[in-house]
Amino acid sequence: MSAKPFAFPIKVAPEDIDFMGHVNNARYLNWVQDAVLAHWRKLAPADEVASKAWVALKHEITYRKPAFLEDDVIARTVLESIKGARAFYSTVIHRGEEVLAEVKSSWCCIDAETLRPARIGEEVARFFFPREQ
C-alpha cells in the first residue's frame, strides 16, 4: 500500500533550459531527487534525518511533455513501499493537469557516518505508512 502523496513545488530556472528552449531532460531527475528528499525530511524523525542519507539505485522515466521557463510545476511523489534499506517511489511531474513526466525510482537508505546500507525499521516506516502499522 502506498503512503499519502507528497506535493513538491518546482520553480523552473533559466539554467534548467537547454538549447531547444525547454527544460533539459536530466533536470527532471534532479526534481525527483529533491522531492523524495523533501518528503523524507518532512515525515521522518529529526534523528533519522540527521543520521541517514539516500542514494538513488534506479530511475525509470517516461517523458510526456516539455516544461518551459516560468512554468508552474509540481512533483507529486508517493512512497510505494519500503523493503529493508530500500524505498520505492513513484513521482509524477505536472504542469496544472498536464503530466510532464512519470518516474519510478528506487533508493537505498545509508548510514550517514559509515555509508553502509541502513534498514528502515517499522518504527520509522510508521511515519510514512501510519495506517499499515
Automatic annotation (TrEMBL):
The keyword Flavoprotein does not apply. Keywords: Hydrolase. It comes from the Bacteria. The keyword Transferase does not apply. PANTHER family: 4-HYDROXYBENZOYL-COA THIOESTERASE FAMILY MEMBER (PTHR31793), NOVEL THIOESTERASE SUPERFAMILY DOMAIN AND SAPOSIN A-TYPE DOMAIN CONTAINING PROTEIN (0610012H03RIK) (PTHR31793:SF27). Belongs to the 4-hydroxybenzoyl-CoA thioesterase family. This is Acyl-CoA thioesterase.
